[in-house]
Specification:
The complex is a heterodimer. By secondary structure, chain A is α/β, with parallel strands linked by helices. In chain A, about 10% of the residues lie in helices and about 25% in strands. In chain A, strands 1-2-3-4-5-6-7-8-9-11-10 form an eleven-stranded mixed β-sheet, with helices on one face. In chain B, the strands form three sheets. A seven-stranded antiparallel β-sheet of chain B has the order 7-2-8-1-14-13-15, covered by helices on one side. In chain B, strands 9-10-11-12-16 form a five-stranded antiparallel β-sheet, covered by helices on one side. In chain B, helix 5 packs parallel to helix 6 and helix 6 packs across helix 7. The two termini of chain B are about 30 Å apart. At the A-B interface, loops of A face loops of B.
Chain lengths: ~230, ~300
């Protein structure tokens, strides 16, 4: 397999990102490795080809943001907004992720092996996110569609004002946000969870150890009886 | 925005190079804070009966020799040492802080008293971090720990006095990334306690609040717990004392921080890009501190 190597200590990030935006016919199937990321922002953002990108080290803000089709792996940790607004493809963070991981992501799979910070999966719009560690407070705030799987614990206000996203949490939830409640996990949801665990390297984890959370749908419509509270 | 950096060197052999190790950290935070920069360094202490006074004068041609001469004439006290660097000077004397403060206020009201202590020197000025660092030879600094800041002003003027670190009391300083929405009411509350302010900066309110709590008997942890109740806004605060660095983030973690713990050092910065150059960083434990939790590292 052909591998193209870039060293960010020698090549400016803009040059690397411009190469990663080349015509898909040039990039499809290619392996691209990025050395010395050293916490730089915007590494491998806006990819739209079937390239595989491997980042050796820690990345800064918005790593692999707006990803489409591409497969991006970051060996270290990432700053805020990893895979924000991802459309498709796969982003894998082997370390921890800071705040707002996978914010507004519409498709694809984001896998974080370590912990994720606050507001993980905020306004999720259809993507799948699997976090090997715990997620911080206010995760899945206003999440509309998609799945968030958390193998560890969740912080305060999980799923506040949630719409139709599914939240699978194995550990403790410090508190649930408004209109988020425990749901019964049916065969359909269980199938989704098993599939996501298998695709994120956690096939050894029992789906029975998870609790499903979702929307109580009491905020969907204006309630005249509660008008004083608005 | 603003950037913060902190470095505590555990390996005594590396303390002579703390300035050199820190410099890329501060410069790495230029995009977060391009308008001013500052640093508090904790070095070798002066003797028990001496105090260091970090002074700043805004006039480029300020006559420091005259100040040193007048100080000696008026107070008859032997100035132990007087080290001047550009607009800053560190005056070491046996006199008590109140006498020095009153004398400065009466004779040199244009001179800012940046800090008092036995170990801590403070340098802060306007300019990019690289410019300020070059102006005050930051790369040559030696010591056990330091706290640095790069500023992007959002709520008060760009002047050396508004730059961070802020200090209160002795050998204590604070840098802040964020903004406080209740700084004016906090100031009024503290002014009722007889506490005086040097600037209209929001961080100064937080700094004087915490120092006041500690003077009232709180330890740092209890003072910060009171801080969580009283401070309204966004903040990552990094504090330096004579033998420790302490870090807290607001309950919503609105402002970033990354920590690298290594056998030789503990390094803190707003972002990892300021830590990437540190020796053997690959073997450091890198983590993001949790919100509303206090982290303390001892020298």
């Amino acid at each position: 397999m052909e591998s193209i190597k870039y060293d960010l200590a020698k090549t400016p990030l803009r040059e690397v990102n411009q190469f990663l935006h080349s015509d898909a016919s040039l990039l499809n199937g290619k392996h691209i490795e990025i050395q010395n990321p050293n916490g730089a922002h915007n590494i491998a953002v806006g990819l739209k080809s079937e390239a595989k990108v491997l980042v050796h080290g820690h990345a800064g803000y918005y790593a692999a943001g707006m990803n489409q089709i591409a497969d991006v792996t970051i060996e270290g940790s990432v700053g805020a907004g990893v895979a924000e607004n991802m459309m498709s493809g796969r982003v894998h963070v082997k370390g921890f992720a800071s705040n707002a991981a996978g914010a507004t992501a519409q498709g694809g799979l984001l896998v974080i092996d370590g912990d994720a910070g606050l507001r993980c999966a905020i306004s999720l719009k259809g993507a799948d996110i699997v976090v090997g560690g715990s997620v911080g407070s206010f995760s899945a705030f206003m999440a509309q569609a998609g799945n968030l799987v958390v193998l560890g614990d969740a912080g305060e206000g999980l799923g506040d004002s949630i719409y139709e996203a599914r939240l699978f949490v194995r550990g403790k939830v410090k508190s649930l946000g408004a209109d988020c409640e425990v749901k019964t996990m049916g065969p359909e949801e269980r199938k989704i969870l098993v599939d996501l665990l298998s695709r994120s390297g956690h096939s050894d984890v029992s789906p029975e150890s998870f609790t499903l959370y979702g929307s109580a749908r009491t905020l969907y419509h204006f309630n005249v009886a509660k008008s004083g509270a608005y | 925005m603003c950037g913060i950096v902190g470095l505590l060197v555990k390996n005594p052999n590396m303390r002579a190079n703390i300035g050199e190790l820190m410099l890329p950290m501060l410069i790495g935070m230029t995009e977060r804070g391009p308008d001013s920069a500052g640093l508090a360094i904790f070095g070798a202490p002066v003797s028990d009966d001496e105090r260091k006074f970090s002074l700043y004068a805004s006039e480029a041609d300020f006559n420091w020799q005259k100040l040193a001469h007048d100080f000696l004439t008026h107070l008859g006290s032997k100035v132990v040492s007087f080290n001047q660097k550009v607009n800053h000077a560190v005056l070491t004397t046996h006199l008590d802080p109140e006498t020095v403060k009153i004398w400065l206020h009466e004779h040199y009201p244009q001179v800012h008293l940046l800090a008092i202590g036995q170990l801590m020197d403070i340098y802060k000025d306007v300019g990019t971090p690289a410019e300020v660092a070059a102006r005050y030879d930051f790369s040559q600094l030696t010591g056990s720990h330091l706290v640095g800041h790069t500023r992007m002003a959002t709520e008060s003027a760009i002047t050396p006095a508004h730059a961070h670190p802020f200090t209160a009391g002795q050998d204590w300083c604070l840098v802040h990334n964020g903004s406080l929405s209740n700084a004016p009411s906090l100031r009024r509350k503290l002014q009722h306690e007889g506490i005086m302010f040097e600037t209209d900066n929001d961080t100064e309110a937080a700094c004087r609040f915490l120092e006041w709590r500690m003077r009232e008997g709180d330890d740092l942890k209890t003072a910060l717990e009171h801080g969580f109740e009283e401070l309204d806004g966004f903040y990552t605060l990094l504090m330096g004392t004579k033998d420790q660095l302490a870090l807290v983030r607001d309950p919503f973690a609105c402002k970033p921080a990354v920590v690298a713990e290594h056998d030789d050092y503990v390094a803190i910065a707003s972002e990892f890009r300021s830590l990437a150059h540190l020796p053997d960083i690959k073997n450091a434990k890198v983590f993001e501190p949790s919100p509303k939790e206090m982290y303390v590292w001892k020298v």
